[in-house]
């Protein structure tokens, strides 16, 4: 089996991609009666939720805390660490109407599926999507192959990178 493709994303690129997602969601807001709240799937959804909330002028922001990746390498059993506020659920008619669910990535769709069970009529938007997870995202910006590992800017530090050739002198 080949090693995963690497897709490093800089802060600048991630910010541009989040703004592109916000722009797409703006066009959908009228059709959905506007967005009343955002639910960020932690931890990856926190940064895009903040950017999108700013761009769309949404101040009601909630989190749902679900652990799925363990040791940053394997997606395992889903564990809901914190559910969605009952006030937000009841305020959206119990179904999630007018609520945006935001995450950085839908990989297999398992996390999005779990949140969809909580708010069936919410709109799930992710910055990136892999083929197995695409069907769970109502809106996303960029599709990457299933064998791609995305290196988000909050997971990286500045350091020297060897040339692709592997030669030390380039």
From TrEMBL:
<keyword id="KW-0660">Purine salvage</keyword>
<dbReference type="Pfam" id="PF00156">
    <property type="entry name" value="Pribosyltran"/>
</dbReference>
<dbReference type="InterPro" id="IPR000836">
    <property type="entry name" value="PRTase_dom"/>
</dbReference>
<comment type="pathway">
    <text>Purine metabolism; GMP biosynthesis via salvage pathway; GMP from guanine: step 1/1.</text>
</comment>
<feature type="binding site">
    <location>
        <position position="107"/>
    </location>
    <ligand>
        <name>guanine</name>
    </ligand>
</feature>
<keyword id="KW-1003">Cell membrane</keyword>
<feature type="binding site">
    <location>
        <begin position="103"/>
        <end position="111"/>
    </location>
    <ligand>
        <name>5-phospho-alpha-D-ribose 1-diphosphate</name>
    </ligand>
</feature>
<feature type="binding site">
    <location>
        <position position="107"/>
    </location>
    <ligand>
        <name>xanthine</name>
    </ligand>
</feature>
<comment type="function">
    <text>Purine salvage pathway enzyme that catalyzes the transfer of the ribosyl-5-phosphate group from 5-phospho-alpha-D-ribose 1-diphosphate (PRPP) to the N9 position of the 6-oxopurines guanine and xanthine to form the corresponding ribonucleotides GMP (guanosine 5'-monophosphate) and XMP (xanthosine 5'-monophosphate), with the release of PPi. To a lesser extent, also acts on hypoxanthine.</text>
</comment>
<feature type="binding site">
    <location>
        <begin position="107"/>
        <end position="111"/>
    </location>
    <ligand>
        <name>GMP</name>
    </ligand>
</feature>
<feature type="binding site">
    <location>
        <position position="150"/>
    </location>
    <ligand>
        <name>xanthine</name>
    </ligand>
</feature>
<keyword id="KW-0808">Transferase</keyword>
<comment type="subunit">
    <text>Homotetramer.</text>
</comment>
<comment type="similarity">
    <text>Belongs to the purine/pyrimidine phosphoribosyltransferase family. XGPT subfamily.</text>
</comment>
<feature type="domain" description="Phosphoribosyltransferase">
    <location>
        <begin position="10"/>
        <end position="159"/>
    </location>
</feature>
<dbReference type="InterPro" id="IPR029057">
    <property type="entry name" value="PRTase-like"/>
</dbReference>
<keyword id="KW-0479">Metal-binding</keyword>
<feature type="binding site">
    <location>
        <begin position="149"/>
        <end position="150"/>
    </location>
    <ligand>
        <name>GMP</name>
    </ligand>
</feature>
<feature type="binding site">
    <location>
        <position position="104"/>
    </location>
    <ligand>
        <name>Mg(2+)</name>
    </ligand>
</feature>
<comment type="pathway">
    <text>Purine metabolism; XMP biosynthesis via salvage pathway; XMP from xanthine: step 1/1.</text>
</comment>
<protein>
    <recommendedName>
        <fullName>Xanthine-guanine phosphoribosyltransferase</fullName>
        <ecNumber>2.4.2.22</ecNumber>
    </recommendedName>
</protein>
<dbReference type="GO" id="GO:0000310">
    <property type="term" value="F:xanthine phosphoribosyltransferase activity"/>
</dbReference>
<keyword id="KW-0460">Magnesium</keyword>
<dbReference type="InterPro" id="IPR023747">
    <property type="entry name" value="Xanthine_Guanine_PRibTrfase"/>
</dbReference>
<feature type="binding site">
    <location>
        <position position="150"/>
    </location>
    <ligand>
        <name>guanine</name>
    </ligand>
</feature>
<keyword id="KW-0328">Glycosyltransferase</keyword>
<keyword id="KW-0472">Membrane</keyword>
<feature type="binding site">
    <location>
        <begin position="43"/>
        <end position="44"/>
    </location>
    <ligand>
        <name>5-phospho-alpha-D-ribose 1-diphosphate</name>
    </ligand>
</feature>
């Amino acid at each position: 089996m080949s090693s995963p493709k690497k897709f490093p994303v800089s802060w600048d690129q991630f910010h541009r991609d989040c703004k592109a997602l916000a722009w797409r969601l703006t066009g959908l807001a009228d059709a959905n009666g506007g967005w009343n709240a955002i639910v960020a799937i932690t931890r990856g959804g926190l940064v895009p939720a903040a950017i999108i909330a700013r761009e769309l002028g949404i101040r009601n922001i909630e989190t749902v805390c679900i652990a799925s990746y363990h040791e940053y390498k394997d997606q395992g059993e889903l564990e809901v660490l914190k559910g969605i506020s009952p006030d937000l659920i009841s305020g959206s008619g119990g179904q999630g109407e007018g609520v945006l669910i935001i995450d950085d990535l839908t990989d297999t769709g398992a996390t999005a599926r779990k949140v969809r069970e909580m708010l069936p009529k919410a709109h799930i938007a992710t910055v990136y999507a892999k083929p197995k997870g695409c069907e769970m995202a109502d809106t996303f910006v960029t599709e990457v192959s299933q064998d791609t590992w995305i290196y988000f800017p909050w997971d990286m530090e500045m350091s020297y990178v060897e040339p692709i050739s592997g030669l030390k002198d380039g």
